[in-house]
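Re: beginner question about structure tokens

> Can someone show what the tokenized structure looks like for a real chain? I only ever see the sequence side.

Sure, here's an example I had lying around. Input first:
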Amino acid sequence: MKTNKTSLTQQIGFTQEEIALLLRINRTTWSMYEIQRRSLKTDELLRLTQLMTILSQPEQTLSIESQPQETEKLWQEELEKTQLEKLKLERKIKHFRNKHEQANKILLHVQCLIQSNQFSAQAYLLDSITHRGRNQLKNYNLKSLTKMELELEVLTHKISLLEVQRSKK
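And the corresponding structure tokens:
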């Protein structure tokens, strides 16, 4: 599709990566198409046609008067979505911490029982409980908890930025 004129990517103003994502292809496929070294499949061409049709008539698809309201609505929706995501993550972290603490208690209690020598006849049971506690610690480890806490911090910052952005409108 490359000619002496500017490429389609330049005409639209999107990057090759952005167009490729819109067409659901990889960037190199789009690049090869632009320099006429590859053809697009039928479904890809259909998506490209739809994209170009929409972009060739922006005044019909986007009302300038409604744009600020739509933008505000989109900011609000993104804020609400992020707040919900944060709430879910907070619940997951709480559950995770409880499971981690429970596993530590299990192992501590088993150690107490072993040291008391009163349950030595049930060593197989204590081994089973110890194994369950270790597996639970493995599944609910501090590294994963730290990762989730970092994700929570990122969501908190994102919410702050969205609230600032929304208040500017």
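Each token stands for a local structural state, so reading them left to right follows the chain. Confidence is low (pLDDT under 50) at residues 1-5.
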